[in-house]
């Protein structure tokens, strides 16, 4: 029998893609979307077999109502950045309340979206699941690591992407463009390698983990099998910047020079720290066991999202 799904974070960057994929799939039997605010127009609730309910991870009663009659929970809601106490309330206590509500309702599987940032800042080179300690350094990653524990202790599955790009991304590529715009020239980031995944591919893996009999409890990494050289990532961001400004730049500055130039810019130092070392994670189970396609590599995958990025950046 096809399961009934509950998707949290269903209006977010990744959760909205999971909701769309679930509504168009032959399975599940029904899809319930947990949202904090009523839909303002035709959208998720207008999809076949889809129900939208109001709730909040900080309201346990709403979670109990949302989990009633549900077989599988796909937990995509999270607080990224912002106030540390709010991050704790949502990512830590909120996930605990959701798992408790799911367990009480007889939910058979919880699949939770997390982040490879729970491991800290690297370097990581072809790191496999189970080989790295948890070493989060920000309030967001610390509270998401805490939330993971409730899912894992309940026998659930956690997916840890590193960098996610695509339509709706307001963090990764816009953040890199902002970094480069603060420099007088392009950035030579060195030779590090980074794991990336397209948002629609990630959504497909989340849905696959929810529905597949082959899904294992525990953590998965979800990345395209081929890591991306930092130069390719920075070149894509530089192209977006020059498309916005209409001015090519050069020659490039190296990481050391960039650090000195942006010594008083905290967001820039965070980005430079990440770019300087490998963040490459290896896990073939999403493609081998869950029957999902990793899709094209970064350059080809990004091409389909360029119109959206250019429109977003044109207004910034």
Salient structural properties:
Rossmann fold, 15 strands, alpha/beta, 41% helix, seven-stranded parallel β-sheet, 316 residues, globular
Overview of this structure, please?
- The chain has 316 residues and is of the alpha/beta class.
- The chain has a domain at 4-166 and 196-225 and 281-296: Rossmann fold (3-Layer(aba) Sandwich), CATH 3.40.50.720.
- Helices cover 41% and strands 17% of the residues.
- The chain contains 12 helices and 15 strands.
- It has helices spanning 15-24, 60-67, 84-104, 139-153, 172-181, 199-211, 230-245, 255-261, 266-276, 285-288, 298-303, 306-314; strands spanning 4-8, 30-35, 50-54, 72-75, 109-113, 124-127, 157-160, 163-165, 187-188, 193-194, 196-198, 218-221, 228-229, 253-254, 279-281.
- It has a 7-stranded parallel beta sheet, sandwiched between helices. It has a two-stranded parallel sheet with strand order 6-15. A two-stranded parallel ribbon has the order 8-11.
- α1 (15-24) links the parallel β1 (4-8) and β2 (30-35).
Topology overview:
Layout: E1 4-8, H1 15-24, E2 30-35, E3 50-54, H2 60-67, E4 72-75, H3 84-104, E5 109-113, E6 124-127, H4 139-153, E7 157-160, E8 163-165, H5 172-181, E9 187-188, E10 193-194, E11 196-198, H6 199-211, E12 218-221, E13 228-229, H7 230-245, E14 253-254, H8 255-261, H9 266-276, E15 279-281, H10 285-288, H11 298-303, H12 306-314
Parallel strand pairs: 1-2, 1-4, 2-3, 4-5, 5-7, 6-15, 7-12, 8-11, 9-14
Antiparallel strand pairs: 10-13
């Amino acid at each position: 029998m096809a399961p009934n799904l509950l998707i949290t974070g269903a209006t977010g960057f990744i959760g909205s893609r999971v909701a769309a994929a679930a509504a168009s799939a032959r399975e599940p039997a029904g899809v319930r979307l947990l949202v904090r605010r009523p839909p303002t127009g035709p959208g998720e609730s207008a999809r076949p077999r889809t129900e939208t309910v109001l709730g909040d991870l900080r309201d346990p009663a709403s979670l109990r109502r949302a989990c009633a009659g549900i077989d599988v929970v796909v937990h995509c809601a999270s607080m990224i950045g912002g106030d540390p106490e709010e991050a704790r309330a949502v990512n830590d206590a909120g996930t605990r309340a959701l798992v408790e509500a799911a367990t009480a309702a007889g939910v058979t599987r919880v699949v939770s979206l997390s982040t490879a940032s729970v491991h800290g800042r690297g370097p990581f080179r072809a790191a496999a699941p189970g080989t790295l300690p948890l070493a989060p350094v920000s309030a967001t990653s610390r509270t998401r690591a805490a939330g993971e524990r409730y899912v894992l202790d309940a026998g659930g599955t956690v997916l840890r992407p590193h960098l996610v790009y695509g339509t709706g991304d307001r963090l990764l590529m816009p953040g890199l463009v902002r970094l480069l715009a603060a420099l007088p020239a392009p950035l030579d980031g060195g030779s590090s390698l980074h794991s990336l995944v397209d948002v629609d591919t990630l959504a497909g893996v989340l849905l696959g983990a929810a529905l597949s009999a082959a899904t294992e409890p525990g953590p998965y990494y979800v990345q395209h099998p081929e890591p991306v050289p930092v130069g390719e990532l920075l070149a894509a961001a530089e192209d977006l910047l020059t498309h916005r400004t209409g001015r090519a730049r050069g020659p490039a500055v190296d990481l050391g020079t960039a650090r000195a130039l942006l010594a008083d810019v905290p967001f820039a130092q965070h980005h430079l720290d990440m770019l300087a070392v490998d963040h490459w994670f290896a896990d073939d189970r999403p493609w081998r066991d869950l029957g999902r396609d990793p899709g094209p590599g970064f350059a080809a995958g990004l091409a389909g999202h360029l119109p959206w990025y250019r429109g977003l950046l044109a207004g910034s």
